[in-house]
Amino acid sequence: KSVEAMYLTPDVVGQRARVLDMLSPKPGERIIDIGVGPGLLAQDLARLVGDTGRVVGLDAAAAMIKMARTRLAALPQAECVEGDACALKFPDASFDAAVSTQVYEYVADMPLALSELRRVLRPGGRALVLDTDWRSIVWHSSDEARMARVLSCWDGHLADPHLPARLAPLFRRAGFTVARVEIVPMLSPHWQPVSYAAGIMRAIHGYARGNGARYGLSEIEVQAWYDDQLRLIERGEFFFSVNRYAFLATRQDAVGP
Question: What's the pLDDT tens digit per position in 199-220?
Answer without folding.
Answer: 999 999 999 999 999 999 999 9
